[in-house]
Design a protein that fits this description.
251 residues, 2 domains, 2 strands, 4% strand
Length: 251
């Protein structure tokens, strides 16, 4: 069974948990778009608000950093690439490599934006049940003709439920490598193949077992979804967030 990870739903009685899931989906899209267009000042304000929200929800930031360690390496590479590829006043010059001051600023802003988008998605997943997300996706796709909304909602719900399992399987594969002293091998290609191949094989096997189990239980896409009940304060939160995002786009 999958262990509880930082990207799992965490039950609670906070207002973020009680907020209508349709409103939360709209807020997720608005905030993500605003983050990708925000400058350093707006990013600072949004970071402060997100830190307060994460603290209020008691989300384990340490576990998030551990589980995102490879993603953080990717962000570091993005920062280095932007620092080397952006023209400007040279800050560090070594042979044919030149790191500009403008490149470092641009790289820091890009990494900052991506991390904020990840945190926004983390708070959304941690405060919303997968069944509610599935139902909300179907609700938004209902007016669109010729779209299998039930199938799309089911796929999204399964993906969200598979995330903790994938993290668990990755941890088990790494533990198996350590038990066999694979991490002491100097060849990085050997270590990578010994991790990737078993990890993907176990993931695909688990997906096949899940599909067989769903068929054995006569799973149907036409299921009873949770009932939505948007309240006045939900629309007030949406209005405040929309105004804030509009200010970011304008300024």
């Amino acid at each position: 069974m999958a262990q509880l990870t930082a990207f799992s739903y965490r039950s609670g009685n906070s207002y973020a948990h009680a907020l209508d899931v349709r409103i939360k989906l709209i807020l997720l899209m608005l905030v993500s778009l605003a983050v990708m267009d925000a400058g350093p000042t707006a990013l600072g304000v949004m970071s402060l608000c997100l830190m307060i929200l994460v603290r209020y929800l008691h989300l384990p930031l340490k576990s998030v950093c551990v589980e995102l360690r490879y993603f953080l390496i990717l962000l570091a590479l993005v920062f280095i690439a932007r620092s080397l590829s952006t023209a400007g006043d040279p800050l560090i010059v070594w042979k044919w490599l030149t790191i500009s001051r403008e490149g470092m600023k641009a790289g820091a802003v890009v990494v900052w934006r991506i991390m904020l988008v990840v945190l926004v998605g983390l708070t959304f997943v941690a405060t919303t049940r997968p069944t509610e997300i599935k139902a909300a996706v179907e609700w938004f796709l209902k007016p669109v003709p010729l779209i299998p909304r039930a199938r799309i909602g089911t796929m999204i719900g399964l993906v969200l439920r598979f995330i903790p399992l994938i993290f668990t399987q990755a941890g088990e594969t790494l533990d198996a490598q350590r038990a066999r002293a694979v991490e002491h091998r100097k060849n990085p290609y050997y270590r990578l193949t010994k991790f990737v191949i078993p990890f993907f094989r176990r993931t695909f096997e688990t997906a096949d077992k899940l599909a067989v189990a769903m068929e054995a239980r006569c799973y149907s896409e036409n299921r009873t979804n949770p009932q939505f009940s948007a309240r006045r304060r939900d629309f007030m939160v949406l209005a405040v967030c929309a105004v804030f995002c509009c200010l970011i786009f304008l300024f």
